[in-house]
């Protein structure tokens, strides 16, 4: 069984084919997500994504094996694709769970990842155009040696905040797993991590109970531990529907800070799944496949209000 968000289209079938062939869930998902990360037409993940305020790409990714609860994650990684594969390398070759920034890049070199050109020319153009509009002539003349925080609020554009790619799978051995990858928010403050590399927030998996992953406003799911909430609720005996509802209630209880839409993708160990759209204006779609189906389907996420 495979569940992923709409951005997954370049790699979804790759993962399905590997799962059909009996491949374990994590390597099957990492192989599929690598295609998403390298696809320039996916304007939110990997090469096609958006840079931070300084015009630098910083990627985040996470991998979780629901059977062992092993996790590998990387954050704010420069010049590297595919970062989901790098997160998997962290899981397999280090005693750590998460690496960030320069250390993550150093480890990437040790593991044979090339130093990639990762800024799409169109992303560079749009990044500068928008930044330029927001800056005074004095700020423009001194850029980048200016305080960036005042620009942060002005420039965060919910329309371009989205998106991440998330994959959740149940493989032939009934192991659940989660893999995520993103370039994070466009024009984010340098060094900002979203929820995608944070276990419990952007993703979580426990083969005995279920798995979940989130897209959109990581600033909310990090505060609520949304993915972990869902899996814990399943452990405590709630149905998948109730577990997701509980997580949405927690998001709705937030009254301060940056508040916007969140999309939750979730499955339980019995093979049920749910994808819900909380507060996103646009229609949210997701990919779904299970062993009873000839091919994957693009479905519409249900809107949910607490
Ligand atoms: N959740 C991601 C983040 O906060 C962004 C997204 O999915 O749109 O970095």
TrEMBL record:
One Pfam family of this chain: Asparaginase_2
Entry-linked InterPro entries: Ntn_hydrolases_N, Peptidase_T2
Regions annotated as coiled coil: none
Domain of life, source organism: Bacteria
Protein name per its UniProtKB record: Isoaspartyl peptidase/L-asparaginase
Species annotation: Massilia phyllostachyos
């Amino acid at each position: 069984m495979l569940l992923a968000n709409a951005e997954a289209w370049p790699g979804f079938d790759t993962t399905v084919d590997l799962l059909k062939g009996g491949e374990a869930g994590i390597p099957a998902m990492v192989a599929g997500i690598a295609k998403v990360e390298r696809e320039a037409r996916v304007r939110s993940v990997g090469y096609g994504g958006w840079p931070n305020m300084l015009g630098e790409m910083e990627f985040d990714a996470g991998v979780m094996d629901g059977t062992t609860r092993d996790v590998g994650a990387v954050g704010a990684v420069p010049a590297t694709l595919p970062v989901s594969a790098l997160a998997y390398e962290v899981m397999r070759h280090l005693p750590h769970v998460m690496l960030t920034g320069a250390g993550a890049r150093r480890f990437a070199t040790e593991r044979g990842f090339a130093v990639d050109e990762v800024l799409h020319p169109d992303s560079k153009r749009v990044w500068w155009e928008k930044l330029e509009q927001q800056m005074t002539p004095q700020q423009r003349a001194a850029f980048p040696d200016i305080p960036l925080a005042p620009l942060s609020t002005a420039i965060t554009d919910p329309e371009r905040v989205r998106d991440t790619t998330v994959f959740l799978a149940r493989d032939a051995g009934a192991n659940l797993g989660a893999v995520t990858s993103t370039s994070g928010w466009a024009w984010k403050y340098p060094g900002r991590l979203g929820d995608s590399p944070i276990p419990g927030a952007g993703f979580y998996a426990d083969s005995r109970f279920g798995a979940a992953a989130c897209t959109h406003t990581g600033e909310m799911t990090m505060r609520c531990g949304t993915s972990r909430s869902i899996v814990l609720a399943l452990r405590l005996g709630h149905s998948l529907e109730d577990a997701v509802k509980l997580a949405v209630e927690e998001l709705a209880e937030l009254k301060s800070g940056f508040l916007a839409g969140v999309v939750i993708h979730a499955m339980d160990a019995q093979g049920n799944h749910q994808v819900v759209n909380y507060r996103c204006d646009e229609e949210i779609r997701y990919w779904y496949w299970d062993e009873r189906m000839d091919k994957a389907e693009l479905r519409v996420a249900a809107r949910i209000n607490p």
